[in-house]
Specification:
This protein is an alpha+beta fold. The protein has 6 helices and 17 strands. The strands form 4 sheets. It has a 5-stranded antiparallel beta sheet. Strands 4-3-5-6-8 form a 5-stranded mixed beta sheet, with no helix packed on it. The longest helix is centred in the middle third of the chain and has 18 residues.
Length: about 300
């Protein structure tokens, strides 16, 4: 006898949960998380975490803002965020292109809640309630997408993307900008003689000494096997020369400890600044690369302009 089959039960994936609309209330509090932050979900700052301390934080592209979005579509002082009394308030500061909250342009100051998205130019920022686990999650995502895992510096794509942004701002507003292109000397010989483990340690050591040489506004990235690019905003050629020479000495004058003793490692560096006739970021990179090539030809372990 064939038994009747029981009615199919819905699987968890097929169950639709009811959606509860939650109106925004002026007095809706944000509680007291460990930290509030804006996380960049789109734009040149993708993945960046901008912590919101108590009080006022400014969003814009001016040097004095707390949430820096380096984009020509962003006003110098674009918007204000105020964290006070358990609430986060946002106010546009009369920006040229405006500030959207969840796709709408608010008429004045607006109270934000966790998950709200701010659109500012090409950037999208999400308000996130950060506990230690949430922060670790976002920092891991940022590291995976923007950092070179060996040296901890920016990776090739994020470095070149940031350079395009900095070049555009320098060109538009007539501000100084320099770059330094560096290459470790005789790196293949290091790998062949001491092994790839030692070669990796040399790269890590160079990355650490490079980070210690940078100013807060500078950016450095690994753009090839042993090739690096440093972006120096608000810096002319003389400033780039000083920076590059300081980096060269930081590597050459302090041997890298490897099996069997200290290994003297040097680097060659090419420098250039943005010229009035530069209309494309590639023109700067080509000159920096020419300076690097000249440094190699003239004996390595030196700084040459391109």
């Amino acid at each position: 006898m064939t038994r009747p089959r029981p009615a199919a039960q819905p699987t968890p994936a097929s169950i639709e949960m009811p959606t509860v609309a939650r109106p925004r209330g002026e007095g809706e509090g944000l509680g007291a998380p460990a930290e509030w932050a804006l996380v960049a979900y789109a734009g040149a700052a993708l993945g960046r975490i901008f912590p919101l301390p108590p009080g006022e934080s400014l969003i814009g592209r001016a040097p004095d803002v707390q949430v820096a979005l380096l984009d020509s579509e962003v006003s110098r002082h674009h918007a204000r965020v105020l964290l006070e009394g358990g609430q986060v308030r946002l106010e546009d500061l009369g920006s040229t292109n405006g500030t959207l909250v969840n796709g709408e342009r608010p008429g004045g100051a607006v109270v934000l809640r966790a998950g709200d998205r701010l659109a500012i130019g090409a950037h999208v920022l999400k308000l996130v309630a950060m506990d230690p686990l949430e922060r670790a999650f976002h920092e891991t995502l940022l590291d995976l997408s923007t950092k070179d895992p060996l040296t901890g510096l920016a990776n090739r794509s994020s470095t070149l993307g940031e350079f395009q942004t900095r070049f555009g701002l320098s060109l538009r507003y007539g501000r100084p900008l320099s770059v330094v292109m560096g290459d470790l000397d005789c790196f293949k010989r290091i790998n062949d003689t001491f092994g790839h483990g030692a070669g990796d340690f040399v790269l890590q050591t160079f990355g650490e000494r490079l980070r210690n040489t940078l100013r807060e506004a500078d950016l450095a990235g690994r753009i090839g096997g042993e090739e690096f690019l440093m972006i120096l905003p608000e810096t002319d050629l003389a400033g780039a020369q000083t920076f590059a020479e300081r980096l060269r000495r930081a590597l050459a004058e302090f041997p890298v400890p490897v099996a069997g003793g200290g290994l003297v490692v040097t680097c060659s560096l090419g420098i250039t600044e943005r010229l009035a006739g530069d209309l494309d970021a590639g023109q700067m990179l080509a000159r920096a690369d020419a300076g690097l090539y000249r440094a190699k030809l003239e004996g390595r372990n030196r700084v040459c302009s391109g």
